Amino acid sequence: MLSVLKWLVCQEEDVLMKITRRLGVSPRQRGSNGDINCPDIFELADGRFAIMGTDHTDDLEQVLPAEAGRAPYERIVVITRETLLRAKADIASLPDE
Description:
This protein is of the alpha+beta class. About 30% of the residues lie in helices and about 20% in strands.
């Protein structure tokens, strides 16, 4: 029974972590010609978002506003302005729920 429950949990996690779409255009469409500097924004099947960017946790953690907090498992990533602006239309079209 336990192995069946483990299998069901793994199946559920796989669905939740599925990327359903990219917000904005691909890095190649933004001028990236290789595997470096390719920030991206993805919507996940469960409605959350995955951000691929450069990890700047060490640089930015000490300058976060007082009301901002970061859990030990969270990272602060930086994406280019162009990445966010090119995703603007897709973000604006997201349903409120």
